[in-house]
Amino acid sequence: MNLPPAWCARPALLLCLAAAASLSACESLTGGPKVSVYQSERFQSDETFSRLFDGSVEATCEAARRTLLSQGYIITQVKKDAVSGSKRFQPEGEVHVEIAFTVVCAPEGKRDQVATAYVSAVQDRYALKKNPNSASVGLSAIGSLSIPLASTQDSLVKVASETIPAGQFYDRFFALMHRYLREQGEPAEVE
User: Fold this and answer.
1) Residues 42-75, buried b or exposed e (16+ Cβ, 10 A)?
2) How far apart are CA 102 and CA 67, in angstroms?
3) Tens of pLDDT along 151-185?
4) 14 strand-pairing partners
């Protein structure tokens, strides 16, 4: 049996290694195999972003507005059936988080004396990015002397965004909303 010399097998091996490296580089650039995010969406009835309140649409949304205001949210939009607000946090020195909260109130029943409040909060995370800037100064009287001047320009870059999942965050919101609706003289939560 005639085997090729060892020097002949090396280029084939190098070619295979280069192909494997380029495939793994392509996969890492695209974030690996593509998985659709919506495939993990569960639509379970026990994890809801809504509550039923025994009050009119206007009263329910007013209670939502007061709840957001009482917690330091800046109200960005107010309608008779919707309210939006946002709040900013800085949990670490170079990390900035913003929560955008939206409440939509929909009538239930024939006389519109019961309303459902649908809520959703999106959390955006930003990180501080330093962009170096440099310049040089030439002094013609001395000759061609260049002195580098360095500075940095900081900017916030969005690094993540997600809807806050159903759970205690919304439960606390609904509990406080219930209190404000009761203080308005409206009957409170039905559930």
Assistant:
1) eeeeeeeebbbbbbbbbbbbbbbbbbbeeeebee
2) 12
3) 667 788 999 999 999 889 999 999 999 999 999 87
4) none
Is the CA virtual torsion 90, 91, 95, 100 positive or negative? negative
Backbone angles phi, psi at 175, to 5 degrees: -65, -45
What letter represents residue 176's amino acid?
Answer: L
Cα-flanking dihedrals φ and ψ of residue 93, to 5°? -55, -40
Homologous superfamily of the 53-127+156-183 domain (CATH): Kinase associated domain 1, KA1 (3.30.310.80)
Can you tell me the distance from the alpha carbon of 94 to that of 126, in angstroms, rounded to the nearest whole number? Answer: 8
Parse the chain into domains and list their residue ranges: 53-127+156-183
Phi, psi of 132 (to 5 degrees): -75, 135
Measured distance between the N- and C-terminal CA atoms of the chain, rounded to whole angstroms: 84
CA distance 139 to 144: 6
Which amino acid type is present at position 134? S
Cβ-based neighbour number of residue 120 at 10 Å: 16
- Can you give the pTM of this predicted structure? 0.67
Using a 10 angstrom Cβ sphere, with 0-12 exposed, 13-18 middle and 19 or more buried, the burial of residue 109 is exposed
The per-residue pLDDT for range 16-25, each reduced to its tens digit, is 444 444 444 4
Q: Which two tokens stand for residue 32?
A: 């690996």
